[in-house]
């Protein structure tokens, strides 16, 4: 994942910004007794996650899904898979596993939420729902040049999205967050429609760290820099997530990327251990039962 990468990550101030003033208010409106945490990578193929799979692994997804409890499914951004493919993914994975698929680029980047996207959305959902109870939160990632001048398209999309299907949206144009009037309207729209506001933690785009939750789900896309700071950044996230847990958050969806993706499982394993130690989760630590476990640095 090259988005937000920098040449010298050691020069970046990775301090997590304070929470938006309305984040804890949002969590405290409807505090939940439920608490679920999903941590995963963006891909499962062996070419990207080199060294993660034991020698002789025949089915990568089957193995991956027994190490992690979720996957941020980026493959669905590039094409809409037929229902049969989602059925196969469903059958290969254990009961507690969830997929978090990205909406097709035809919706976000080509048609850019135009009024004629409804048939494409319906086609996508007709396939994705074959994941049944293993379908986590679908997410929409808008292009970085999709600006607030097209806010009306976001309104139409948010209000027409089927409410029974969880949705998160990632905006990359800086004006969505740095213009206070626009940001306020956006947050209200997302809250009203129970849509999660994706937080992107990337070295080169600290402006996207809005720290504004719009419902009881935190959807976080974390991009490591293949640098020793990756660990301390995750430590800071554990502290923040503990605060959100103490204030009634229902679900945390945390997906680890790296510019060199083969290190994503290694960093994820460290993060999961910290969650287990500090938040009381009981997540499996990937490859914890394997002698082939590597170290990141």
From TrEMBL:
InterPro entries registered for this protein in UniProt: DUF72, UPF0759_sf
Entry superkingdom: Bacteria
Pfam families: DUF72
Coiled-coil regions listed: none
Stated name of the protein: DUF72 domain-containing protein
Organism of this sequence: Winogradskyella ouciana
